[in-house]
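Quick one:
INPUT:
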């Protein structure tokens, strides 16, 4: 999973991890592929859109890369430009219209909307919040209660790891002071293996996979097992939905089709990532094997019992309600947010 970093005004809290609807014959203007501008020769020129990605090129974005490689975006009249900016201001840029799409977590969307930024999640990426807390197996730390008095390393008091930690403590009626929380940056694996902390945060499809490859047995506490936070998703603006519904529908449809293809054929998705990430393509076999495992561990996060019925990208209102309740009770969210405007399942159908 990738690092998610919220807009500047929220940086103290956030930073940085079924079947898609078929591309059938359009039944309305909103269902039709995005209109493209005609060239002088009478052919159509693809509409270029920018997607603000929340991390460096990574195998966990294979669904986007495969959709692009197989021409799914082009079939919707779109040409994709991936903009990797660590999401320092992705939400603000989406709200301003300088980029058309991005990725952000549900808590980021609620905080942004509380500040008046009209951003909307139009498809959920991970069906389960991917933050985990891992420790060496011989430490016998298996439950949130076991964290009491332990040194717990997180990148900082912001982002998915911190939000996940707060939600897990909230669910178990614990306080931050029950733990020895340490800011360790994004060096969680090294901090744990070198004994600097007893527990470290990460993503279930990343750091534990790295440690397993090193032969280090770990216990993993999944935040999602204790509290159902709304996870990351594809985000756009209210104005984009209002004025360019066909673009939104086409982008979501193509991306989810790519996601389904990666699930069906991970090797194909991995190859698409290799084509986009030259450092990985030229890496040694051990590094490539690790990244294959990361991709394989990512696939279950994209799926749930509900996606089997509702389709890939489904956003569960129960997760959004739970996230809203936790953030209000914890004082992270200073005012109520209308959840009906924070996300929609309209474009996954």
């Amino acid at each position: 999973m990738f690092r998610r970093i919220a807009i500047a005004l929220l940086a103290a809290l956030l930073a940085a991890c079924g079947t898609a609807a078929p591309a059938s014959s359009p039944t309305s203007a909103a269902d039709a592929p995005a209109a493209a501008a005609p060239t002088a020769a009478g052919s159509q020129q693809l509409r270029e859109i920018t997607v603000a990605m929340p991390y460096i090129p990574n195998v966990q974005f294979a669904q986007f890369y495969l959709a692009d490689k197989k021409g799914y975006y082009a079939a919707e009249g779109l040409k994709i430009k991936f903009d990797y900016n660590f999401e320092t201001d992705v939400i603000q840029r989406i709200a301003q219209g300088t980029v058309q799409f991005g990725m952000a977590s549900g808590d980021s969307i609620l905080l942004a909307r509380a500040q008046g930024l009209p951003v909307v999640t139009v498809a959920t990426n991970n069906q389960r919040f991917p933050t985990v807390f891992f420790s060496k197996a011989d430490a016998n730390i298996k439950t949130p209660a076991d964290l009491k008095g332990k040194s717990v390393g997180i990148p900082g008091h912001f982002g998915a790891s911190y939000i996940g930690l707060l939600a897990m403590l909230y669910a178990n009626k614990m306080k931050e002071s029950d733990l020895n929380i340490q800011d360790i940056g994004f060096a969680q694996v090294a901090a744990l293996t070198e004994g600097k902390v007893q527990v470290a945060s990460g993503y279930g499809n990343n750091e534990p996979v790295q440690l397993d490859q090193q032969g280090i047995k770990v216990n993993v506490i999944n935040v999602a097992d204790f509290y159902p936070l709304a996870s990351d998703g594809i985000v756009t603006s209210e104005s984009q939905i209002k004025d360019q519904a066909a673009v939104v529908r086409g982008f979501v449809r193509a991306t989810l089709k790519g996601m389904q293809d990666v699930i069906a054929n991970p090797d194909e998705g991995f190859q698409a990532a290799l084509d986009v990430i030259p450092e990985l393509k030229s890496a040694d076999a051990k590094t490539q094997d690790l990244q294959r495992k990361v991709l394989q561990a990512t696939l279950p996060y994209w799926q749930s019992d509900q996606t089997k019925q509702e389709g890939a990208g489904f956003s569960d209102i129960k997760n959004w309600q739970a996230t809203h309740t936790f953030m209000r009770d914890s004082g992270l969210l200073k005012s109520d947010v209308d959840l009906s405007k924070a996300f929609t399942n309209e474009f996954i159908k």
